[in-house]
Amino acid sequence: MYTISEIDSIVEKSFLNLKIEGTPQSLYEPIEYMMGIGGKRIRPRLCLITYTLFSNLINKEVIYPSLAIEIFHEFTLIHDDIMDKADTRRNQLTVHKKWGDNSAILSGDVMSIMAYKYLCACEQDKMSALLELFTKTASQVCEGQQYDMDFESMPFITQEDYINMIGLKTGVLIACAAEMGAIMGGADEAVCKSLYNFGFLIGLAFQITDDYLDTFGNEQIFGKKIGGDIVNNKKSWLLVECIRLATGEKRTELNRIMAMDENQNAEKIASMQNLYVDLGIKESAKKKILEYHDKAMDVIRNIGLSDVQIEQLSIFAEQIIHREK
Amino acid sequence: MYTISEIDSIVEKSFLNLKIEGTPQSLYEPIEYMMGIGGKRIRPRLCLITYTLFSNLINKEVIYPSLAIEIFHEFTLIHDDIMDKADTRRNQLTVHKKWGDNSAILSGDVMSIMAYKYLCACEQDKMSALLELFTKTASQVCEGQQYDMDFESMPFITQEDYINMIGLKTGVLIACAAEMGAIMGGADEAVCKSLYNFGFLIGLAFQITDDYLDTFGNEQIFGKKIGGDIVNNKKSWLLVECIRLATGEKRTELNRIMAMDENQNAEKIASMQNLYVDLGIKESAKKKILEYHDKAMDVIRNIGLSDVQIEQLSIFAEQIIHREK
Question: Please, are residues B192 and B178 in contact by the beta-carbon 8 Å criterion?
Answer without folding.
Answer: no
